[in-house]
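<instruction>
Derive structure tokens from the sequence
<entry> Chain with its tokenised backbone below:
===
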Amino acid sequence: MDEMESPLGPEARSGAAFMALSEVAWCYPVDEVEPADLPMIAAEALAAGLESPALCELAGLGRGDDVRDLRDLFEQALAETGIELPSSGPAWRYALRRLAARIIDGNVVLADVAWGGWSDLAVETEEEREFVSLLPECACCVEYTLGYDAERWASEVRAAAIVLNSSPGRVGPAR
């Protein structure tokens, strides 16, 4: 559904509720949103002023309802509100930038960034490539990867995170 077909007016598409649901849509393909949380997310979107039949139906479901029903209704609600569900490639790149922002803000323990999936990410910029190259493959490899110079590694990761988040090539919900 393109912007002209959306049942929402332009003010709703630029509002906080729309932006919050757009953010969830970008986190959804990379499994950062639990399906059990989707009914509450829908209820919050309704309370904030967004409306669609699927959003109402989803808000009426519970955490224990069938995951497929929750996912289907969420995706239908996104379509009805004019929010595009990103493909996994851009969603993972956005997750990478969110990780970089959390590192900059000091909201992540650097040893917890060890996850082998980052190296498989289809990065598109040199800044993404540099940041990913500093992330350990797995938690068991952190000591091997870092050796005894964890402070230097943490500093390099933070510097790469700053460069990544200040670089062009932004992905994510339109602001």
